[in-house]
Amino acid sequence: MKLFVGIIVGVDSSTPEAPRNGSREAGSEGVRLRDAIRARALELGFSACGFTGAEDLDCGPLLGKWIAENRHGLMDYMERDIERRTSPRRFMAAAASVIVVAWKYRGIGAAPDPDWRERLTGRVAAYALGEDYHLHLAEKLERLAAFVRYCGSRATQVHVDGGPLVERHLARRAGLGWYGYNTMLLHPDFGSTSLLGCLLTDLPIPADTEPVADRCGTCRSCVSACPTGALDRGPTIDARSCVSYLTIELRGPIPSELRSRIGNWVFGCDDCQDVCPWNDVESPPVTPAAARPSLVGLLSMGEDEFHATYSGTALARPKRRGLARNAAVALGNSANQAAVAPLERALAEHDEPLVRTHAAWALGELGGEQAARSLLRAETHDPTPPVRRAAGAALARTR
Length: 399
Ligand code: B12
Ligand code: SF4
Ligand code: SF4
Description:
Blueprint: E1 4-8, H1 28-43, E2 48-53, H2 60-68, H3 82-85, E3 97-104, H4 116-119, E4 123-124, H5 133-150, E5 155-160, H6 167-173, E6 178-179, E7 185-186, E8 194-201, H7 221-225, H8 243-249, H9 256-259, E9 265-267, H10 271-274, H11 295-300, H12 303-310, H13 319-332, H14 340-349, H15 353-366, H16 369-381, H17 385-398
Parallel strand pairs: 4-9
Antiparallel strand pairs: 1-5, 2-3, 3-8, 5-8, 6-7
């Protein structure tokens, strides 16, 4: 998702006391300015705030290699303008500094439900619960931007996630944490369970601390916990096999060899963060119902219900058909015969061929006579060739 906003001039009427006309020096005025901006960021609810210059990032060659190896899968936007992704000044020529913020979201997360197979519930990654974080963070960053302009900045620009800038590397350079083997930015106080945002400004604010040294040590728990082997010891990721990519970004069919490893994830994945010793174990996450949606409900959801439930949330991104596809896969992984009837209905009636092909696969996983009868019908009568083929392949597995 792309979201970056540029603003020239503007004042937030609720701004607290602040140093005016930001210092051009890295002296005590600059430090005072930095402290005031950080205090405002924390007051706005951010968990951490760091500062770095707007010079190019040095990760261009690594990023280029990652793209050349096609590890971005079908996320075409990653291929465009690689130079821009590592260069804040290509977005705002006057940029002198980057203010990087982290927003810790843990506490609204969801623990895995050991009984999900019986209950037929899915799992939603913790960062995605509640209002779409792009909007939430952008709104807070805009308020911080207003304060920065009040301090003398004449131009600011807000980036949250979808903007091409490589945010974790900016965060690392701004002293917010280190780059873990799960490829996340880990903060020493709250680990990886945070979202990042960047604010470009023409104010030269003295850079913050040195990058935090690697604290992973010999631990590689995240690499072992990844259900699809998407992490290597680079530390890099192959997005093509990451459950987060498969359930959110991938629009078409999920490669069949990966489906059984997805478990009950229907949006995103937290497996490589749940095992990380740096993540907060003292405040066990609560589990709002939205974190464990009914798989049958997702599979059979109509357009109106989808919009009523998911508009304005991060879960709108894969669209109704993406969530229904994911629910079909999770039902196929449930080993519960109670999932056969809803999958049969989806195979016979769902308006999206993508969902019907995944329902066919899931019935093949569950097996049994009832599933086989439905698959035979779909193999013969479905109007779409890919669904007929998927039904035929699944039927062969039930025999
Ligand atoms: C594309 C993308 C994805 C892709 C690819 C993930 C990835 N790791 O790159 C997919 C869809 C899989 C994904 C998944 C998730 N994402 Co995402 N994603 C992005 C996005 C838009 C771009 C990231 C990017 O540029 N990747 C390209 C790769 C090449 O970049 P990289 O991993 O940094 O690559 C570097 C390393 O390989 C490094 N490197 C190689 N060798 C070495 C050696 C050393 C010593 C070091 C230090 C570095 C290093 O150099 C490379 C070049 O930059 C960012 C937002 C942004 N604009 O930055 C969010 C972002 C990274 N995602 C985020 C989140 C929350 C997630 C999920 C946790 C969501 C979920 N629960 O499902 C998962 C986590 C999966 C994971 N383990 O990474 C957050 C991370 C916050 C944080 N604290 O780190 C971000 C920053 C969004 C945000 N604004 O908060 N995401
Ligand atoms: S988000 Fe899940 S699938 Fe992706 S790297 Fe982490 S554990 Fe692996
Ligand atoms: S699980 Fe271990 S290796 Fe992975 S990010 Fe956390 S500390 Fe680093």
